[in-house]
Design goal:
Elements lengths: L3 E3 L5 H12 L18 H6 L7 E4 L2 E4 L1 H10 L11 H30 L6 H21 L13 H16 L3 H4 L3 H11 L2 H7 L53 E3 L5 E3 L19 H10 L4 H11 L5 E8 L8 H13 L8 E9 L9 E8 L5 H4 L7 E5 L5 H12 L2 E2 L2 E9 L1
């Protein structure tokens, strides 16, 4: 697929798309672009009538607005889970993208634009922006206290979007004293920017030793050259402050507790004790097993070398599953949706299962498209959370013998082999 991104650089609105493309192994051409000239040509205005950047050119037409662009690139591959691995996680990713757009980025501009000379310094606006940034960082600090990433257990689009919006702040105005109260945010941000996909786009990010000040803000004077806004330097108007509801008007929330994964769980949503929680404690921790698997990527064979050494056959079981109506899978995109829908409807199983579902075929144009998979379950049988899923009745389940070499090999193949049963794995979805 040929993709071309029109933008000046550096531009955090474009950088997030390039980072997402790096995670999805998608090539995007970034041609030389002169803001104020190239974006006013009839050819460019046909792509984006607003004359703004970034604008993405695709084989199907152009896309403008940076979050629409980055969402498009993230969705081009589903196996990387940049958009989360469930409907709930996808909504959380969108939540943090909106958080960045509505809470973080407007105040970011008010703080940084006067330094760059694109907006006149105003002491009141500066103080308000700095205060609002602190509020946003406090939200992130609390959220990251029990999490490595913003959503789930790996980098998602949420981390990419929020981190790129923070880069210039860390480089220019977040001095050591300002950063000190935000240990969790600093740890998360450092983790993000040191990923190869981030550093490929951002280069080295040096943290500010001293806050840069705009002309007229103090003895330090104005900082050096800075970034530009979407229209090439037009001064932005400070965003109006939000009206906060009085505390008394807020709806009283029921107390929440943490589940085993650190997620908040309301008492209303608790469905009573699960018999799997009453099982004897196992030496194998499912959440740690999931994390280890993806940490070994792409060397999954190394994971299974370790896995068979700590697998607890008394506390866990392995099942293979095969779709009963493979001959009916004659349309590729519908077969992909069949696999994706099955995975999405297994949310209640996440605490008790880890698995994979594969869509096979000669190629995307040649039907049928068989479906098979494998799951590791807590307990010695198929959990109720799986059997209650309406999709499960369309599959045949077979319990594996972990002591049997053939079953071990089949589990490994279904989790990561590029070919199964003489067919190519066209789509592989992990349930984690």
């Amino acid at each position: 697929m040929s993709l071309k991104l029109y933008t000046y650089m550096p531009n955090y609105r474009a950088q997030k798309t390039l980072i997402a493309a790096a995670y999805n192994d998608i090539k995007i051409e970034v041609p030389a672009f002169e803001l104020g000239k190239d974006n006013q040509t009839p050819e460019f205005l046909a792509k984006n009538p607003l004359g703004k950047v970034p604008t993405l050119e695709t084989p199907h037409g152009s896309i403008f607005e940076s979050n629409a662009i980055v969402r498009y690139v993230a969705r081009l591959r589903q196996d990387t889970d940049l958009y989360g691995c469930s409907f709930h996680e996808s909504a959380q990713v969108d939540q943090w993208i909106d958080f960045s757009a509505n809470e973080l980025e407007p105040t970011r501009a008010i703080w940084l634009f006067p330094i760059a000379g694109f907006m006149q310094y105003d002491a009141e606006a500066y103080a308000s922006a700095k205060s609002d940034i602190v509020k946003s960082l406090n939200v992130l600090e609390k959220h990251l206290a029990t999490r490595t990433y913003l959503v789930g257990h790996q980098i998602t689009l949420a981390d990419i979007v929020v981190a790129t919006a923070l880069v210039e702040l860390y480089k220019r105005v977040f001095d050591p004293a300002f950063r000190k109260p935000f240990a969790n945010v600093n740890r998360w941000f450092t983790t993000c920017i040191n990923q190869p996909q981030f550093s490929k786009v951002l280069g080295k990010v040096d943290f500010a030793e001293k806050e840069e000040l705009a002309a007229g803000a103090g003895a330090a004077g104005a900082g050096g050259k800075g970034g530009k806004d979407n229209k090439g330097g037009k001064a932005a108007t400070p965003a109006p402050k939000k009206e906060e509801k009085p505390a008394a008007a807020k709806k009283e929330e029921k107390p929440k507790k943490k589940d085993d994964d650190g997620e908040e769980e309301s008492y209303e949503e608790k469905k009573g004790p699960n018999p799997l929680d009453a099982l004897p404690k196992s030496s194998m921790i499912l959440d740690a097993t999931k994390k280890l698997y993806f940490e070994k990527r792409p060397n999954f064979a190394a994971f299974f070398t370790e896995f068979w050494g700590f697998f607890d056959a008394n506390g866990y079981s392995i099942y293979f599953l095969d779709y009963n109506y493979n001959s009916e899978n004659t349309v590729y995109f519908m077969s992909c949706n069949l696999v994706g829908g099955f995975i999405q409807r297994l949310d209640d199983l996440r605490k008790y299962g880890f698995g994979v579902v594969n869509l096979l075929g000669k190629d995307e144009e040649t039907a049928p498209y068989p479906i098979n998979g494998a799951f590791i379950f807590r307990g010695t049988g198929i959990p109720k959370e799986m059997s209650d899923c309406p999709d499960s009745e369309y599959y045949t389940f077979r319990k594996a013998d972990p002591a049997n070499a053939a079953d071990r090999k089949l589990l490994e193949d279904r989790f990561y082999a590029p070919q199964l049963d003489g067919l190519t794995v066209l789509d592989r979805r992990y349930f984690k």
